[in-house]
Specification:
Blueprint: E1 9-15, H1 22-30, E2 37-43, H2 50-60, E3 64-68, H3 75-85, E4 90-95, E5 99-100, H4 105-116, E6 120-129, E7 132-137, E8 150-151, H5 154-159, E9 179-182, H6 183-193, H7 195-200, H8 206-217, E10 220-233, H9 242-250, E11 254-255, E12 258-259, H10 261-271, H11 276-287, H12 293-299, H13 303-315, H14 321-345
C-alpha cells in the first residue's frame, strides 16, 4: 500500500476491546467532508475480534493504518505511538468508544487552523453517560476566550496557572480530544512529558498529563463555538485494563483486585515534586473526593490520613490561595462528615 505522504489531518483512534463500538468512531471519520486524511487505528492488544474487524475495514478504505500492540500498554502509549507515525499537518485524537458528531468539523477546524497558522483549534463536545445525554461540555469557562486567538504567554497563563495573586483564575482544559493540534506540537509534547508518565501514571490521567503539557508548549489557540465531538462516558464500559491492573499491582495500590484510592493518594503525594503535572494531578484527585463515589466510601475509614495529605499540601506553599482555599473546603466537609458518622455510630 502506498501511504499518503501529505494528509491534511491525521486521525488517531485508540482501541482496546471495543469491537462492539469502534466502528462508530471510524465511520464518523470516513464521513468527514475533509477527504485528504489518514486514519491511524492503534489496537492495544485487544482480546476480542477488534483486529479482524479493523483489517476488514482496511481492505475497504486505503486511508486506514493499523498499529498493533503485542502487549497491553495503556492509552497513553497507544496515543504516543499513533502520534509518532502521524504525517498530517494536524492531528486529532478519538477514543474508540467516542466519535465525531459533525461531518464538517475537520474541514472547518482545519480551515481555521491553516488560515491563521494556529497550533490548537478546539471545538465543543456532547457528553453522554451510559447512553443518556448529560449536556454539552465547554471547558473554556474563561469568558474572554471566545472569538479571538490566544497567544503565549497568555495561553500558558490562562490554562496552566501559577500566579499567586488572589484575584487570578487559572484553568487547565483536561480533555485532549475535541481538538485539532499541529503535528509538531504534539510530537514536542511527547518529548516534554518523557517516558516516565507513560510508565507511572496508570489510571485516567492521560488527558490531564497531555493537556498540562500542551498549553505550556503551544504558541496559539482558538476556540470554535461549533460542536464536533461525541463523548460517550461509560456508554461502552470495558473491564479494568490489564495495563492499569498490572501497573497498580506494581505500585501496591490494589485492594481486593480494585484500585485503593487512599494508596493512590499516597502514591501521588510521594511523587509530588513541585512539577506542574504532579501538582495538577494531586489537586484534581483531592478536589474529586466528594464527586467520586468509590473514593468517598474509602475516605470514611481514612479521614485522618487524608487530613495529613491535605495539610502537607497546604504547608508546601506551592499552591496559590484559591487552590488552597478549595482544598481547605474539602477538609472542612470531611470533618463535618466524620462527626456525623461518629454521631450516627453512637
Amino acid at each position: 500500500m502506498v501511504r499518503n505522504e501529505n494528509p491534511d489531518v491525521s486521525i488517531i483512534i485508540t482501541v482496546y476491546n471495543q469491537a462492539n463500538c469502534f466502528y462508530k468512531a471510524l465511520r464518523s471519520v470516513q464521513m468527514q467532508s475533509l477527504k485528504n486524511i489518514e486514519i491511524i487505528i492503534v489496537d492495544d492488544c485487544s482480546l476480542d475480534n477488534s483486529i479482524e474487524l479493523i483489517e476488514q475495514y482496511m481492505n475497504e478504505d486505503k486511508r486506514i493504518i493499523l498499529l498493533k500492540h503485542e502487549t497491553n500498554d495503556g492509552k497513553m502509549k497507544s496515543r504516543s505511538d499513533g502520534i509518532k507515525i502521524a504525517r498530517g499537518k494536524y492531528i486529532t485524537l478519538i477514543d474508540g468508544d467516542d466519535s465525531l458528531s459533525n461531518e464538517n468539523i475537520l474541514y472547518n477546524s482545519f480551515t481555521i487552523a491553516s488560515l491563521a497558522n494556529l497550533d490548537i483549534v478546539e471545538f465543543n463536545l456532547f457528553f453522554y453517560r451510559k447512553k443518556k445525554f448529560q449536556g454539552v461540555i465547554n471547558y473554556n469557562i474563561i469568558k474572554d476566550l471566545n472569538d479571538r486567538i490566544i497567544y503565549q504567554p497568555e495561553l500558558n497563563y490562562k490554562f496552566v496557572y501559577y500566579s499567586k495573586k488572589d484575584s487570578d483564575i487559572g484553568f487547565v482544559n483536561r480533555n485532549i480530544v475535541s481538538k485539532l493540534i499541529k503535528n509538531e506540537i504534539l510530537k514536542s509534547i511527547l518529548d516534554y512529558i518523557g517516558q516516565k508518565y507513560t510508565d507511572d501514571y496508570i489510571l485516567d490521567y492521560e488527558d490531564s498529563i497531555m493537556s498540562v503539557s500542551l498549553f505550556r508548549i503551544a504558541r496559539s489557540y482558538y476556540h470554535m463555538k461549533e460542536y464536533g465531538y461525541y463523548y460517550a462516558k461509560e456508554e461502552y464500559k470495558n473491564n479494568f485494563s490489564r495495563f492499569s491492573f498490572k501497573k497498580c499491582k506494581q505500585k501496591n495500590i490494589i485492594l481486593n483486585n480494585k484500585l485503593d484510592p487512599i494508596k493512590y493518594l499516597n502514591f501521588l503525594i510521594d511523587k509530588y515534586n513541585k512539577s506542574e503535572i504532579e501538582n495538577y494531578l494531586l489537586y484534581k484527585e483531592l478536589v474529586s473526593i466528594d464527586s467520586i463515589k468509590h473514593l468517598d466510601n474509602y475516605i470514611n475509614d481514612n479521614f485522618s490520613y487524608v487530613y495529613l495529605i491535605i495539610d502537607k499540601i497546604k504547608d508546601s506553599n506551592i499552591y496559590y490561595k484559591q487552590r488552597i482555599d478549595k482544598i481547605s473546603k474539602v477538609k472542612d466537609k470531611l470533618i463535618k462528615k466524620e462527626k456525623l458518622i461518629s454521631l450516627v455510630g453512637q
